[in-house]
Amino acid sequence: MCRLFGLHAGPRPVRATFWLLDAPDSLSAQSRREPDGAGIGTFDSAGKAHVAKQPLAAWEDHAFAREARDLKSTTFLAHVRYASTGALTMVNTHPFEQDGRLFAHNGVLHGLDQLDQRLNKLGVMDLVLGQSDSERLFALITAETRRADGDVGAGIAAAINWVARDLPVFSLNFILTTATDMWALRYPATHPLYVLERDPTAAPDPSAPLDARSKRIRSKSTELSRSPHVLFATEPMDPNPGWRPMESGELVHVGRDLAVTSTAPFPDAPARLLTLADLEPTAAASQQP
């Protein structure tokens, strides 16, 4: 399945080094599990979003994902894609940018024709450049955020409640970020999503740098060795016991000052909850752990 990683460093930009394919297993094993895309989103000192991404089809060079990238930002969003909907192209590769916000998704939803009708009605179909369900979900959130006068939390709640009521859903896990705020949703309980509020000053070794890694994403930052920060990830990325699995339906918001709030504004489960058996073979394969 796709891998998500979000890092909020607080009000001051910090440097972090990213690797997007950091698996320790053999090349022969990797060749059977190469991703379909990889990307990193950041913000510059003026708050402008920047995205570096590449559709990593089997015939393309995978150097983009394997080489380290040194970046500076207040928030970071990384994604490794295993395609469920949409071709292996740049426009279908995460993160996506809309209205100065960045978005990455892990999951599948059906009923895209109905979703397109909704996007057309809301006047945001022009935001959709590719074929993926993820970009369409983001466009719906963007439309509802505009209708809520820029209140992203309200936009997320309106969009996800509409999807949960009207569309077949397998998973809607995502991270959405600006330069100052980050939101993460786990819904429903199909896939895990974890959050860690990391305070290095309270750790046994307060001088230890951040070194978070999974099978596909790694982030390292010496600048975060003494300042608090918040992480989101598809799986715990270090031995820190503070990693907490988010609840199904939980929406977590991290503000500029790293204040963390949690709400659950959604029904217990979507009205039409999909299983792996309901998905096309390619989509089903992309959602395996």
TrEMBL record:
Question: What InterPro entries does the annotation carry?
Answer: EgtC-like, GATase_2_dom, Ntn_hydrolases_N
Coiled-coil segments: none
Chain intervals for the UniProt region annotation (Disordered): 199-224
Instruction: Give every Glutamine amidotransferase type-2 domain span.
Output: 2-257
Q: What is this protein called?
A: Glutamine amidotransferase domain protein
Q: Which GO terms describe its molecular function?
A: transferase activity
What's in the keyword line of the UniProt record? Glutamine amidotransferase
